[in-house]
Amino acid sequence: MYLDKAVSRINGIKWEEVGTIVSNGDADLGCEFLRRLALFYKNECLRPQPPMFSNIAKLLGDIDNELLISMYCNPKVLEFVGNYQYLSKIFEFYIQLSIYVDNKPQYTEYLNVYEPLIRILERGGFFVLRPQELEIQNVKYIPLNGWYDRFVSAEPYNISEL
Fold this sequence. Notes:
Layout: H1 2-11, H2 25-43, H3 56-59, H4 75-81, H5 85-103, H6 115-122, E1 127-130, E2 133-136, E3 140-143, H7 147-151
Antiparallel strand pairs: 1-2, 2-3
């Protein structure tokens, strides 16, 4: 159920529009991703890792479902993410978590961690995630040194209208 939704969502992104729409709201989406990720680490009492390496399913104990997005995504997705390893990783993490949650629904809430990054792409924006930075293209640069401490107690960003 969750796997089908995740794959449909990724495959449904209008890849020809990604990176063509600049919106200040995308900065809030990027910050909300970091806030949600920090809360995941806090709630699960785990030592925070850099966002680029935060495979939530694996951190929750999934050792069976490492996968390649080529098993799930259409050629448009694969062509686009072929140039962006970090995007491929985020999608792999999201799909892997959706498979894990299909079997362990008590972790459903953590699917929302990756949601803001997916929404940036759905809105036509673009982001670059590196080990030490999250850049929302043409909108905001977020250094990731000390990211956990900055976002773990942050108020939720209002992204309901985005």
